[in-house]
Write a structure and sequence with these properties.
Elements: H1 3-8, H2 11-21, H3 25-32, H4 40-59, H5 71-78, H6 85-106, H7 113-121, H8 126-135, H9 148-172, E1 187-189, E2 192-198, E3 207-212, E4 218-223, H10 227-257, H11 259-285, E5 291-293, E6 298-303, E7 316-320, E8 326-330, H12 337-351, E9 364-366, E10 370-374, H13 388-401, E11 406-410, H14 419-435, E12 439-444, H15 447-455, E13 459-467, E14 472-479, H16 487-493, H17 498-507, H18 510-593, H19 599-629, E15 644-647, E16 652-660, E17 663-668, E18 671-676, E19 680-684, H20 686-694, H21 696-706, E20 711-713, H22 719-735, E21 740-744, H23 751-762, E22 766-771, E23 781-786
Parallel strand pairs: 5-9, 8-12, 8-13, 10-11, 11-12, 20-21
Antiparallel strand pairs: 1-2, 2-4, 3-4, 6-7, 13-14, 15-16, 15-19, 16-17, 17-18, 21-23, 22-23
Length: 787
Amino acid sequence: MEKEALKTLEYEKILALLQEDAGSVLGKEMAGSLLPTDDFDEAQEQLQQTAEALTVMQLASPPLGGIRDIRSQIKKVHLGAVLEITDITEVMSTLYAMRNLKQFFRGLETDAPLLKEWARSIEILGQLEHNLDNAIDEHGSLRDEASVELARIRREIRSSQARVKSSLTGILHAPEYQKAFQDAIVTMRGDRYVIPVKQEYRHAFPGIVHDQSATGATLFIEPMAVVELNNDIKQLTLAEHHEVERILRSLSEQIGRSGDTLQENLQILAKVDFTFAKAKLARRMQAVEPVLNDEGRVRLQQARHPLIVAAKVVPIDIRLGDPYRMLLITGPNTGGKTVCMKTLGLLALMAQSGCFIPAAFGSEMPVYHNIYADIGDEQSIEQSLSTFSSHMTHMVSILQQAETTDLLLLDELGAGTDPEEGASLAMAILEQLLKNKISVVATTHYSELKTFAYTQEGIENACVEFDVKTLRPTYRLLIGIPGASNAFAISRRLGLPASLVLRAGQLIQADHAQFEHVINELEHEKIMYEQRNADIMERQQRVTQLESKLETMKNELLQKKAAIIRKAREESATLVRRTRRESEEVIKELKEQFRDQGSKKRQQVIQTARDQLKESSSRVRSSIVADKTYRQRLDLSSLAVGDTVYVLSLAQKGTVAAMDGQELTVQLGSMKMTVKASGCRFVSSGKAAEAERNTHTSALYMQKVAAAHRELDIRGLMVDEGEQIVGKFLDDAALAGLKQVLIIHGKGTGALRKGIHGYLKRHKSVKDFNFADIDEGGTGATLVNLK
């Protein structure tokens, strides 16, 4: 990327924000040196890293504390230097941070493959960490247990110090010395224990003078009784110093041996900290991941300049690259033209740096190989107005280097010289850039360029909206229409005499005035149509909501209807079962009444009652099956004579013989009936009926299977009659795929039950059998499980 463009677009301020969010020196360095990439895959991977970090942050905060910059310590030990305890403490802190980060990602349940791979690459130096922890405590002091020798020396030092203090305490309490003491205390001078003694008692108190007070009235004397003890402490202190040096050297050598691994781990820690800094910046800016493309297509929706306060920035929509590669923005000064260009340029740099952009979801950005910016922004304290020469020099350099995959941001192209010549130069430059298929966003005040954009394919006019009534820009970018300068309106509102404004209007060329008028009309109409479109969209949303609500109500009604029908059928089935039980009682009474009559008459009466029950049950079942099977309503426009329909009131199928409006003549066997079309359901067309006749054999088989029942009542039959009926019943049940059937034989004398049980034992389709449950007949019925 061109360094001048990075500076012009204030890219370094984005890096400064990134550095604020980094927690370690290493992360801040990476943030400060971040540069946009021109490689599509690399940019995509960097965005994925940021997305993973943002996902992790929504679940838990990663342990990024304790990371220290220990590169200087590693360099020292490689040169053979001995590290100070503070240096080793920083190494320990970094080792703890490595372990914590690795454990965090190891236990992380969310999907973050790139970050987890980094964490897996961290090599835990367990032995080094253990040795350092055994030698240095949490306060940064060397432990007594760092070595056996150090523990012995410090133990002797404490013992010697205790003896010195005991001896000095005895001296302080001796009666003969009480007058000599300035203060009855023990203090230290130069690592030696001393007692403050009055000057006049110097010769009465034996000892070595180490210091005196500022007035000379007090001498600090080491009593002769503790001189040797203090000498012993001094020697022990020197021995302690040598042992500490030896331990620190040993620890430094251990760190040096792991230097390469520490360097690699540091790079990983820096990348993790830097990546989470990008995620924090994205959350702070309420930014989203851009959709990258390699087709040069820009689709920014509700884009916001990242360096403008969120409460003040006006979101804009920018389209570029398809179908036009050049956008020409016009409008008054301070209207926001330059901000629009900088927003596009800066968001492109951020996206190619792996940062999320402040825009709406679904915004697209291409990956540019280079971004050039020629912006003289009088609104920035960092920039001053550029002369025509400096602009043109920069423009020449850009034209020599720019390629198809680059983005050019040109502010006030051709300005700073004669307007007519400047406009001509600007058109020539734009023609060349258009020919080279380079993406360009340019701003201008020249009317000639507005007309030029209308006549050239691949260039689109745009303007920043300006409210003439309030003399304030709205900062909205309107693509598709050029902007008017509004110079007369602004001057009139600012108080310029009306006569001067009128005279200026007379002097301006008629075609220019007409052009400005057309532009104003276009802008007004565009705003009006946008408002209408917004109103239409709102109405469409309301209609969609009403349609959805209507569909929901329809489904609820259908469900209620189905529930009511299901309940009615359940009640009818219950009624049939109750009637059947009552009929069984009647049959039982009939048996008693016909006990003395002939067997043949008795069987006839029983069979008649059973046939009536079967007919009632069949009607209920056929109604249920028919409702489930035939649900398609009739379409009179496509219904033809010969089609098969199902008559709901009769629960039978028939053939359409004739049609008369909403009434049908249906052939039901040998009988014809006239019925309402609404009371029928479509079954099949005449052609389908013909195909059905061709497969009559298969249909008979399927009907037989469908007609199979789970129950068989053989009460009142002889054993041989019962065996014959039961055998056929079991064969039909096995053919229908039933796994369990119920045979009702009654209780009576038990002869029929015993005979049937014997027959079941011999039947090849029977797996086993048991008496039925109480609610199904108890010992009066047998439940048979089929193979």
